[in-house]
Amino acid sequence: MWLTDINSRLAARAAPDSILGAEAADARLHGTRAFPWIWLIWLVWLFGPPVFGISEYFPKWLWPTLVSLPIFLVLYVAAHMCRRRRVVWYAGAVAAIALALVPFNPYAGTYLIYACALAADWGSPKRASGLMLALMVVFGIEWLALHLQWQYLANFWVLCLIVGGMGIYGSLQRQRRAELRLSHDEIRRLAASAERERIGRDLHDLLGHTLSMVTLKSELAGRLIERDPVAARREIADVERVAREALSQVRSAVSGIRAAAVAAELASARLLLEAAGVQMEYWCGPQELPSNVENCLALVLRESVTNIQRHARANRVEITVLAGPERVVMRVRDDGRGGVNERGNGLSGMRERVAAQGGELKIESPRGRGTSIEVSLPLLAPPNPMPDRTLRPSSNVTVLPVRQAGSQS
User: Fold this and answer.
1) Which of 101, 138, 306, 406 supports an S-S bond with 108, CB 3.0-4.6 Å?
2) What dihedral angle (degrees, nearest 10) is formed by the CA atoms of 401, 402, 403, 409?
């Protein structure tokens, strides 16, 4: 639609902290559409004099009203695109239009309501409320000075308070959601930093002593290779044994890091969904999975949860990961609106990713009855490790078995 295209172009040009920019960013994160221009429909109240039979008392109402409309529209659009701290000037300008028009058209109070709606997005709630009250008082003084009926003024004031209060509440909600997103990002950053530190400590503990021992024994073997070849071979055999032990330990550590992929995605999914007001329940078996299967499930889970958060409008989500001797099955169910297009929302890429692992993806999404995504992947045996052709185990060396990353216990 051309209106949506115009709105997208305006949002792209708006200041990052503008009303339109904040609404567009909030809409992208929550899978909705920001379209503040829909409220312009209430401008129809400006043409109230002939509808309510008072045009004979204000015979010159039409042309001043028509002249004021384009000026108001320019100010309204500019107020939504400018920096938040400048909204006060546009709110005052819109209120000035109301003050200038009210002698010709008493329904110019409609502009006052728009001015209060803009004032609600200016600064803190205390400052916004003060600006709203100031505009209402000035308008009321002129209204009474023109000897117009106070009952109509009271109606405008009530509408200003309702619309302005809703605007202040919406602004507070957007601010709280932004703060919540920042806190979630900080939690993820701290978690990633802690994980990197843990991995660094583990690798230091695993390899620091081992590499020092390998260095010392290699230097000793180099000194003994001419004087005592037998002792030199013994030291080299020790180097090989220590290196194999270190390789086994590193592979075990890497396997543990990879096994945390689905668990980490489940934790992140719960954080994301609960922040959006969606209840999440999950169950994941303790079985260790091959790294390729683990990564595929984690990526599918991430895409599924993102689609639920943006599009499903669900209240509850269930996730289960069940691993058998030959296959692993992951199910993601929600009670949202359903009717998912299997060619959109990243589902095509999800299907290709699963097919590349030799698995199957099933989607059930009846309209109005939620969506169920089931992923089934084969648990392929990992390839055999390449033989070490550089070092040959001597007769007096015990070769330790090496556990592959992602092998089945």
Assistant:
1) 101
2) -10
